TrEMBL record:
Name the record gives this protein: Amino acid transporter transmembrane domain-containing protein
Source taxon at top rank: Eukaryota
Region (Disordered): 1-26
InterPro entries, alphabetized: AA_transpt_TM
Bilayer-crossing regions: 59-81, 87-107, 132-153, 159-179, 191-213, 242-263, 275-297, 317-336, 357-381, 387-409, 421-444
Amino acid sequence: MSFKADVEARASPPSSTATPPNEKSPYTADVYGAEVDAVFGAQGEGHVNYTSMGWIKTAVILTKTQIALGILAMPTALQALGGVPGTLLIVGLGLLTTWSDYVVGLFKRNHPEVYSMSDVGFILFGKTGREFFTAAYALFMIAITGAAFVPISIAFNTITTHATCTVVWAVIGAVGCFAGASIQTLNRVSIIGWIGVGAILTSVLIVTIGVGVQDRPASAPQAPLPWDKDIHAFKKASFWDAINSISTVIFGLCGTPAFFSIMSEMKDQRMYNRSLALCQTLVISTYTVIGVVVYYYCGQYLAAPALGSAGPLLKKVCYGIALPGLFASAILYCHCGAKLIFVRLMRNSEHLTAHSFTHWAVWLGIVGVCTLLAFILAMAIPFFGPLVSLIGALFGTIMCMQSSGWMWLHDNWARRKHSPGLSFWLLAALNWFLIIFGSFIWVAGITAGAISIRDAYASGTVSKPFSCADNSG
């Protein structure tokens, strides 16, 4: 029996679990009446209890997957496009990806056996889709983990005034990431999530206030030299600059694929929409406020990451406070990527939840490989802005746009044959738009990101791969 058929065969709800009409339960019962999750199997004494998160912890984890590295690059969208188009871009893409996040909840409840984009690919496109989405999701999580190592090394260089080789700081980031990502369940990782959200928001708030009260940003000509701030409500931007801005904002909002894994570890998955509403309200409002304020006070002297925009002292303070949040980002994304591979390998095996040698050897081995690959990526492309833009285009669009459109159409397109109303056609148009728009940005964004990286190397403004040079600016 195939994996999908096997799971669906045991997905009827137990009598003790109340399930809304037309909604599958994520639980079934074995012959002894024990609770068996549609993803993790046996849940109970002697097993790892994965499904243990309440809705508030879930909201924190969802928020941390969004408010992570993206917030450090968000003001650059306004710098490239101008205040009004940049703000509209953040809000518009925020609402668009909120719909994608909502579709994740719908699809998960309709298909309780889904744990990650790997399972989504199998349902949508069969075995080929499963392999493609497995590779894409794992590489996406590894890429974001690698992107986190870059600001971690920048933070250490800033705080210590480049006390040692940049590669050493990245190694320290990788070691800390491996230690944290090895924690088995998201319920326990949520503690790191709390710390990470608080650290990132505090540091960004400090830099926002700092650029507002200081005479000039850190990279502007310092006193007594004069300086002139250049800001625009509307700014003439090249096509590639506009595409890079879109890709950067998508990167800041593309936590969507991790939402399946997070939702799978909830105690009550029916509370997902409540967690999502809290998450996206905080994310969109924070991105918008931070982007507008930092751009207004820094203008053309905006740093990337944005934490470097304040003066020398505040720069050290901001990076020092943000450091736990940067580690939390690396840990969370590495954990989610490794968990996908682990569940894929161990599914339908007792070693998925049993505290066995095989369980620990495979789990720690996968986390180690993911961390190593992320480290290599970070050192190969050791600069923040172009890397973020490239990741957003290459993986973000597929993971949070095209896939969500196909998910909704898979579950609802057949309704067109049964006299659908206006709301159906509006939603169908929205999801077709997600697919078409996402595909366009995928092609154009990869090209724009590659051009930015080529130009950065050609201009000599960035360090070479695996360089010991100071990257703190």
